[in-house]
């Protein structure tokens, strides 16, 4: 695993006026030394972390030597959303989770990049919550990103997403086994009926009263409970409903007009969470105003989680972005 670094930052005034005192941003670097190559920022999803590459990397099929996001070419930086618990430091966990928004996290990521002397990045990419943060990063620094690549996500939380976040929050605050129970519900949002039915076919375990699908769900709950903290889950879940690049700004087109990045929206045709239909609406709006907007689609039975499963399809979508450019255009380092 790449070394986990810390960046102590100054107090941050959050979107709602609350002050986040002395935030500590943790991150990992993969590939080329800082300042020698173009930078790609990879944002993690709800239960993810900064370990995106290598033997235990959650996106190692796409990020690594000779991979789509080639660490022989790029400097890859992945931050941990503060409070996700990956650094194992209880002092950095966040109890007042409802004070934070996606915009706050995006600002912290930019503060971290600036602290590292990085002013321009070749691409910011992320799936689900990570993609929502990527949208915000592009709006906060509209001329600092070459490619914005939000995957299985949206620039705003729809009523459907807000409703699901409420259910998760209720489980997390009222269940006797909150992490495990919330995970049961979440897994059925991340997959599809077709995916579940094809995988299990109504089969039972050796214990004849237990269906395989029940054992699979319960195991997912146990695994998450063993590696994730309750405060982290509450925060990550809450952030999903705060996603809105237009809040306290202007309408969507006005907000996005100054963003110079090429925007590559990657939808999943069966996504039950951030639906492909919403992504297409965004594309249809943007394509009337700009040329560097692209809509790609992963076709999969697996639903939302396809961005973590359909690596070959995703590689085919991303390869032209990462393999046909002059990366030195985006080397910007002030230290």
From TrEMBL:
Pfam families: Abhydrolase_1 (PF00561). It comes from the Bacteria. PANTHER family: HOMOSERINE O-ACETYLTRANSFERASE. One of its GO terms (biological process) is methionine biosynthetic process. GO terms for molecular function: homoserine O-acetyltransferase activity. The active site is at residues 128, 271, 304. Gene3D superfamilies: alpha/beta hydrolase. This is Homoserine acetyltransferase. SUPFAM superfamilies: alpha/beta-Hydrolases. Residues 39-158 form the AB hydrolase-1 domain. Keywords: Transferase. The lineage of its organism: Bacteria, Pseudomonadati, Bacteroidota, Flavobacteriia, Flavobacteriales.
């Amino acid at each position: 695993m790449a070394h986990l670094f810390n960046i102590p930052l100054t107090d941050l005034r959050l979107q709602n006026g609350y002050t986040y005192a002395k935030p500590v941003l943790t991150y990992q670097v993969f590939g080329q030394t800082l300042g020698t190559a173009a930078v790609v920022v990879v944002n993690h999803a709800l239960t993810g972390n900064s370990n995106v590459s290598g033997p235990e990397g959650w996106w190692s099929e796409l990020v690594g030597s000779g991979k789509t996001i080639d660490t022989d070419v790029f400097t890859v930086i992945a931050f941990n959303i503060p409070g996700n618990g990956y650094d194992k430091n209880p002092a950095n966990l966040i109890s007042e989770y409802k004070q934070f928004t996606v915009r706050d996290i995006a600002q912290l990521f930019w503060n971290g990049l600036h602290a590292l002397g990085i002013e321009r990045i070749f691409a910011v990419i992320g799936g689900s919550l990570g993609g929502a943060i990527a949208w915000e990063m592009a709006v906060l620094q509209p001329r600092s990103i070459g490619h914005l690549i939000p995957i299985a996500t949206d620039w705003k939380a729809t009523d459907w997403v807000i409703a699901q976040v409420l259910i998760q929050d209720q489980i997390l605050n009222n269940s006797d086994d909150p992490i495990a129970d919330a995970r049961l519900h979440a897994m059925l949002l991340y997959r599809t009926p077709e995916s579940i039915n094809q995988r299990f076919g109504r089969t039972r375990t050796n214990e004849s009263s237990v269906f395989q699908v029940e054992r699979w769900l319960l195991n997912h709950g146990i695994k998450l409970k063993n590696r994730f903290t309750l405060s982290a889950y509450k925060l990550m879940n809450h952030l999903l409903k705060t996603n809105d690049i237009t809040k306290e700004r202007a309408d969507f087109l006005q907000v996005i007009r100054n963003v110079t990045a090429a925007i590559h929206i990657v939808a999943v045709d069966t996504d039950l969470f951030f639906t492909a239909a919403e992504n297409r609406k965004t594309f249809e709006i943007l394509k009337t105003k700009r040329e560097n907007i692209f809509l790609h689609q992963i076709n999969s039975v697996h639903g939302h989680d396809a961005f973590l499963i359909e690596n070959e399809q995703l590689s085919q979508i991303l390869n032209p972005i990462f393999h046909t450019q002059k990366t030195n255009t985006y080397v910007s380092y002030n230290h």
